[in-house]
Automatic annotation (TrEMBL):
<protein>
    <submittedName>
        <fullName>NADPH:quinone oxidoreductase</fullName>
    </submittedName>
</protein>
<dbReference type="Pfam" id="PF08240">
    <property type="entry name" value="ADH_N"/>
</dbReference>
<feature type="domain" description="Enoyl reductase (ER)">
    <location>
        <begin position="10"/>
        <end position="330"/>
    </location>
</feature>
<dbReference type="InterPro" id="IPR050700">
    <property type="entry name" value="YIM1/Zinc_Alcohol_DH_Fams"/>
</dbReference>
<dbReference type="InterPro" id="IPR011032">
    <property type="entry name" value="GroES-like_sf"/>
</dbReference>
<dbReference type="InterPro" id="IPR036291">
    <property type="entry name" value="NAD(P)-bd_dom_sf"/>
</dbReference>
<dbReference type="GO" id="GO:0016491">
    <property type="term" value="F:oxidoreductase activity"/>
</dbReference>
<dbReference type="InterPro" id="IPR020843">
    <property type="entry name" value="ER"/>
</dbReference>
<dbReference type="Pfam" id="PF13602">
    <property type="entry name" value="ADH_zinc_N_2"/>
</dbReference>
<dbReference type="InterPro" id="IPR013154">
    <property type="entry name" value="ADH-like_N"/>
</dbReference>
Length: 333
């Protein structure tokens, strides 16, 4: 089958378009004929080598963390799905590879595509939807009336997280450029801050939850807008000791992560708030709950641009530029 292959780590390295063997279908797997694949910042960070200490893939391998397509084969233990069904997934770590014509995914990571979505729209959802769900529902347990600050509201995670937080009943603030103010307001943002001309830490206060996706300086400022007992959840780092334990990383890497996150953890403790690092995980059950919200009209897909399969490198470059409004998708089939 055809796929885009990372032969070696490198800053903005090009993926090679070539042939690889069809995936091996294990007992609990479904084999998906890929129709579309979402493109994420995580793909870029893995390609660049930033995640080697915690996600040690060995090149050559196929990138891609979001898939939507049709099941063409099921493993001997599969009971939840059958051939011919339209499904989508965020394949679990260690088994990525959506930038290809086919991918084998554990049935536990898969959900039926919402009936209201195209394949391209469906491929835009899994990683950002699960990230928002695990941050706001699982970790923060957002309740009606709470105040939630979501950074970079016009990005992939931001466009989904705004909608989910609003669905949960929160008052939602976000940052974006002036050109995207109307977009984030249409998604449900109550307060939209132009990051180029306004300082969010001078405008916001008394917040319950911050979803951080920016640099360490922005992370530090975010602590200051939280009320005591609040929580800042970062999807851009630094990883904390709790994450190292969950991932069962070796003690040396765990020590490095402890030191790297010590400053922000101390700052959070002094402010009487919590700090948590989130690297989202595959979860078909949660994805099915997200599907129900989509079909009910509570949240929707936000797709900026669709690239043909042969232009996967161009799609990654577009994501790298940081100007996408929502998600970028590769149309494979």
């Amino acid at each position: 089958m055809k796929a885009f292959i990372l032969d070696s780590y490198g800053k903005r390295a090009n993926l090679r378009f070539g042939d690889v063997a069809d995936p091996l279908v294990q007992d609990n797997d479904v084999l998906i004929q890929v129709h579309a694949a979402g493109v994420n910042q995580l793909d870029s960070k893995i390609r660049d080598g930033e995640f080697k200490p915690i996600l040690p893939y060995r090149p050559p391998f196929v990138l891609g963390h979001d898939v939507a397509g049709t099941i063409v084969q099921v493993g001997s233990n599969v009971t939840r799905f059958s051939a011919g069904e339209a499904v989508y997934a965020r394949p679990r770590d260690g088994r990525i590879g959506a930038f290809a014509e086919k991918i084998a995914v554990d049935q536990a990571d898969v959900a039926i595509v919402p009936g209201s979505l195209t394949m391209e729209e469906a491929a835009s959802i899994p990683l950002v939807g699960l990230t928002a769900w695990q941050a706001l529902v699982e970790i923060a347990k957002v309740k009606k009336g709470q105040k939630v600050f979501i950074q970079a509201g016009s990005g992939g995670v931001g466009t989904f997280a705004i909608q989910l937080a609003k669905h949960l009943g929160a008052v939602v603030a976000t940052t974006t450029s002036a050109a995207n103010i109307e977009l984030v307001q249409a998604l449900g943002a109550d307060i939209a801050i132009d990051y180029r001309t306004q300082d969010f830490e001078k405008i916001l206060s008394g917040y319950d939850v911050v979803l951080n996706s920016q640099d360490n300086e922005t992370l530090k400022k975010s602590i200051g807008i939280l009320k005591p007992g609040g929580i800042v959840i970062s999807i851009s780092g630094p990883p904390d000791p709790a994450f190292a334990r969950r991932q069962k990383l070796n003690p040396l890497i765990g020590l490095v992560l402890r030191l790297a996150s010590s400053g922000i953890r101390r700052a959070a403790k002094r402010a009487g708030v919590r700090y948590a690092f989130l690297l989202m995980s595959a979860n078909g059950g949660q994805l099915a709950e997200i599907s129900a919200l989509i079909d009910a009209g509570a949240v929707r897909a936000t797709v900026d641009k669709i690239f043909p399969f042969t232009q996967a490198n161009e799609a990654l470059a577009y994501v790298d530029a940081g100007r996408a409004k929502g998600k970028v998708v590769i149309k494979v089939r």
